[in-house]
Amino acid sequence: MRHIVRGIWFLTLIYFIVYLLTPALRGAVDASQALSFVHALFGLILVGGGFLWLVLSIHRFFTR
Question: Which chain regions cross the lipid bilayer (predicted)?
């Protein structure tokens, strides 16, 4: 399960790198409501995963 969650998080990271480097993808997201929803969902996954990684790292640091 942990590998699946990490894989999804890395896919969202790759998506945002491609999003930043590709003007056509930015235009498609701006033009389509469905792609905007997917973009927002990926953003939540990316931010939530980063926050979870930070919290778990701090927890591991203080409990070992």
Answer: 7-25, 37-56
Strands (E), the chain: none
Q: What are 8-52's pLDDT values in tens digits? A: 999 999 999 999 999 999 999 999 999 999 999 999 999 999 999
Closest CA to 46 of 22, 20, 25: 20
Residue 9 sits at the vertex; the CA angle it makes with 8 and 12, to the nearest 5 degrees, is 90
Domain coverage including residue 42 = 2-63
Domain count, the chain: 1
